[in-house]
Write a structure and sequence with these properties.
- The structure is a homodimer.
- By secondary structure, chain A is an alpha+beta fold.
- Chain A folds into 2 domains: 37 residues, Ubiquitin Ligase Nedd4, Chain: W (Single Sheet); 136 residues, Alpha-Beta Complex (Nucleoside Triphosphate Pyrophosphohydrolase).
- Chain A is built from 2 helices and 11 strands, in the order βββββββαβββαβ.
- In chain A, strands 4, 5, 6, 7, 8, 9, 10 and 11 form an 8-stranded mixed beta sheet that branches. A 3-stranded antiparallel beta sheet of chain A has the order 1-2-3, with no helix packed on it.
- In chain A, a hairpin with a 5-residue loop joins β2 and β3.
- At the A-B interface, α1 and β8 of A face α1 and β8 of B.
C-alpha cells in the first residue's frame, strides 16, 4: 500500500523520525498521527494423513501453479491455531486437528512471521478452495521439491520429514532470506 | 488509528466485504484499495542472571508504574530474535543472548501475537531506558505478582518458574483473553 495520505484526516503524510523514536515513520503533517508499518503474521498447517502431507496448488499470484501448504494472513480476533485451521478449511476444504506449533519462520526483509502447525486430517477428504487449483496428498518421495511456492514452505516440509525420519518432532525457529521468487 | 480515508488517494473509506473475501474491510470508495488490519507481533525476552529475572518498571502508559519484561513491537526488516534483543537494550540497556523461543501467546481480541525468548544477560549491567522508570533483578520469591503490567507477562513468568523448578524448559503456546487492565 502506498502511504501518501493520513487515514484519520486525509492530509499529506511525511517521512520523518517522530519525537522519542529512532526510525523513519509516515507521520501526518496536519494531525501528527504516526502510521506504523508492522510485520504480518502468516498462520498455516502441515496437514498429515497417515504417511502423507496435503499440499495445495496455488490458483492465485504470487506463484500460481506452484505447491504450498495451506497458510494465510492471521485475522484480528482469531487465535493463531484457529487461523491455521481456517486457512486449511478455506484453501483445501479439509478438517484438521492441531498437534503442535512446529515452525516459527521470520522473513524480515518482507516483514513476515510464519507460524506453522503440525496438524492431522480428521478424514482424508479435501478439495480445492477458491485459491487452489488442486489439492492432494503426497508421500515424502513424491513431494514436488522443484515446484514449491515459497522458501518458508520448503523449509517447513524439510524440517517435517527430517523430524519424522529421526522419530522426534521439535520446534524449528529460523530467519529466512526472501526467496528470489517471492 | 481511525480508518476514515485512503492512504493511497485520500478518498473516503467504506466498510464492506470485498469481492472474493468474507469479512468486512475498509475499502476505498474511489480507488478500490483494501486496507487490511493485521495482528501485530510483540517480541521480548525473559532476561536471566543467575537465579534472577530482569524486570522493567514502565515509565509510559498503558500501565505506567507496573512491572514488565522488556518487549515491544517487532519492526519490519528485523528477525524476531534480534527484535527481542533490541527491546532488551532499549528498555533496560542490557546486553543479552537468546537461548530459545519460550512462549508464543496470542491475544486475539486486541490482535497481538507475543513471542517471548528465554535469554541470558552477558553481564549484570543495566539501567532504565526511556520507557522505564526502574530496572532490577528479582528472585522468584521477590516477583511483584500484584504489580505486573500485563497478563502476557505474568503468564510468561509463571511458565518460566514452573519450568525452572521442574528442571526442563518447554515451549508454551497459549491464547489469552485481554486483561481487564489492558
Amino acid at each position: 500500500m502506498e502511504m501518501n495520505f493520513c487515514n484519520r484526516c486525509a492530509s499529506k503524510l511525511e517521512l520523518r523520525v517522530p519525537e522519542g523514536d529512532n526510525r523513519l515513520r509516515h507521520v501526518c503533517a496536519s494531525c501528527g498521527a504516526v502510521h506504523y508499518e508492522n510485520p504480518v503474521v502468516i498462520v498455516g498447517t502441515i496437514p498429515i494423513w497417515q504417511d502423507q502431507v496435503l499440499l495445495c496448488k496455488r490458483a492465485i499470484e504470487p506463484r500460481r501453479g506452484f505447491w504450498t501448504l495451506p497458510a494465510g494472513f492471521q485475522e484480528i480476533g482469531e487465535p493463531i491455531d484457529e487461523g491455521a485451521l481456517r486457512e486449511t478449511q478455506e484453501e483445501a476444504h479439509a478438517h484438521a486437528e492441531i498437534e503442535r506449533l512446529f515452525a516459527v519462520l521470520s522473513v524480515p526483509e518482507i516483514g513476515q512471521v510464519h507460524l506453522m502447525f503440525l496438524a492431522h486430517l480428521i478424514k482424508p477428504e479435501f478439495s480445492p478452495g477458491a485459491e487452489s487449483l488442486q489439492v492432494r496428498l503426497f508421500r515424502e518421495q513424491e513431494i514436488p521439491w522443484g515446484h514449491i511456492a515459497f522458501r518458508t514452505i520448503s523449509r517447513t516440509l524439510r524440517c517435517y520429514f527430517f523430524d519424522r525420519n529421526r522419530g522426534e518432532f521439535g520446534l524449528h525457529v529460523s530467519t529466512l532470506q526472501r526467496s528470489p521468487d517471492g
